[in-house]
């Protein structure tokens, strides 16, 4: 059998190197998370640790497979058709990692939709089917032992897993866009926060979806090499980074929100002072704090503060 070394061995090597680089980004994001959010709920911290464990395991399986191909069987080009057990395990670990990320975003959509099961349930179902497909794929890889037999016998299972993953990504991104768009109130500052959240949702969703689609296209159009496998190494890292970036961006959005409300408060305060100087009311209010006008002004200011606080809380709720 003729083996295209650059598109087979080379694809695995480059895929492993890029996956390791992205794994370093995952570690940096996790360190940032625990520094910024030490008071986060235990469930979120456990999720982050689970993502880290799966990411490290995934990287270890990749390099175990590369060691077998490049060191243990050095010089034997025919061995590229053999499916190493560690390479098969990368499929399962990627699916488990992807499933956790999909569940996180499904829960987020469920809460934003005011616990609408008709929106959240289909996402969870498709994510579970993707995990099931990947589990079957891994089992068949270990059973068949060679890529040639795997491609001939159960090619559709691996294709279905990638297609389901793409469908879930599109569904999550679309739901987040629709729900965040419907949360607009017309308030400039709050709408700016919502725009930021929409932008992050599109960026993270598009990145993971693009990685899955490209891997699937290479699998369907170039089944005689392992470019699809090298790309598949990277998919799990993209999902891990998308979740961690979503968690870590909360602090940035909150700081931005605080600055916006601070600027708004300064402008409102300056406008009040300007009105008071023109009408001559300011000095009278300060000298006679018990006057009826003072109580009305205090009530007005109090109402303004309540409205601002409500909007800030709503903005923070949308951010996590």
In short:
The protein is an all-alpha fold and 320 residues long.
Please describe what this structure looks like.
This is DUF6534 domain-containing protein. With 320 residues, the protein is mostly helical. The chain has two domains: 5-250, Up-down Bundle (Rhopdopsin 7-helix transmembrane proteins); 260-318. 86% of the residues lie in helices and 0% in strands. The protein has helices spanning 5-36, 42-72, 85-112, 117-144, 147-153, 155-182, 188-221, 227-279, 281-287, 292-318. Helix 4 packs antiparallel against helix 6. It starts with a helix and ends with a helix.
Shape estimate: elongated
Helix content: over 70%
Q: Terminal Cα separation, in Å?
A: 53 Å
Do you know the CATH topology of the largest domain? Rhopdopsin 7-helix transmembrane proteins
**Number of individual domains:** 2
Domain DUF6534: 165-251
InterPro entries: DUF6534 (IPR045339)
Keywords: Membrane, Transmembrane, Transmembrane helix
Organism: Hebeloma cylindrosporum
Q: How would you describe this structure in keywords?
A:
mainly alpha, Rhopdopsin 7-helix transmembrane proteins, 2 domains, 10 helices, disordered C terminus
Write the layout of secondary structure elements.
Layout: H1 5-36, H2 42-72, H3 85-112, H4 117-144, H5 147-153, H6 155-182, H7 188-221, H8 227-279, H9 281-287, H10 292-318
Helix pairs in contact: 1-2, 1-8, 2-3, 2-8, 3-4, 3-6, 3-8, 4-6, 6-7, 7-8, 7-10, 8-10
């Amino acid at each position: 059998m003729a083996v295209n070394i650059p598109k087979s061995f080379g694809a695995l090597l480059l895929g492993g190197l890029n996956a390791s680089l992205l794994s370093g980004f995952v570690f940096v994001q996790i360190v940032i998370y625990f520094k910024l959010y030490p008071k986060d709920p235990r469930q979120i911290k456990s999720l982050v640790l689970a993502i880290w464990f799966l990411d490290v395991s995934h990287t270890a399986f990749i390099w175990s497979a590369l060691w077998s191909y490049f060191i243990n069987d050095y010089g034997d080009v025919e061995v590229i058709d053999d499916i190493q057990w560690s390479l098969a395990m990368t499929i399962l670990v990627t699916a488990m990692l992807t499933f956790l990320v999909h569940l996180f975003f499904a829960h987020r959509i469920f809460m934003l939709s005011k616990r609408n099961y008709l929106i959240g349930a289909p996402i969870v179902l498709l994510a579970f089917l993707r995990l099931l497909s990947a589990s079957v794929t891994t089992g068949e890889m270990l059973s068949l032992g060679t890529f040639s037999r795997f491609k001939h016998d159960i090619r559709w299972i691996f294709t279905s897993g990638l297609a389901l993953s793409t469908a879930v990504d599109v569904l999550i991104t679309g739901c987040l866009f629709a729900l965040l768009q419907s949360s607009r109130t017309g308030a400039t500052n709050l709408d700016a926060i919502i725009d930021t959240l929409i932008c992050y949702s599109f960026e993270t969703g598009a990145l993971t979806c693009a990685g899955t689609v490209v891997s699937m296209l290479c699998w369907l159009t170039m089944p005689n090499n392992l470019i699809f496998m090298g790309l598949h190494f990277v998919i799990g890292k993209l999902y891990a980074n998308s979740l961690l970036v979503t968690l870590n961006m909360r602090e940035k959005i909150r700081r931005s929100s605080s600055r916006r409300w601070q600027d708004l408060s300064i402008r409102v305060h300056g406008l009040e002072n300007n009105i008071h100087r023109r009408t001559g009311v300011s000095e009278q209010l300060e000298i006679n704090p018990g006057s009826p006008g003072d109580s009305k002004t205090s009530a007005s200011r109090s109402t303004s503060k309540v409205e601002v606080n409500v909007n800030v809380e709503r903005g923070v709720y949308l951010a996590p």
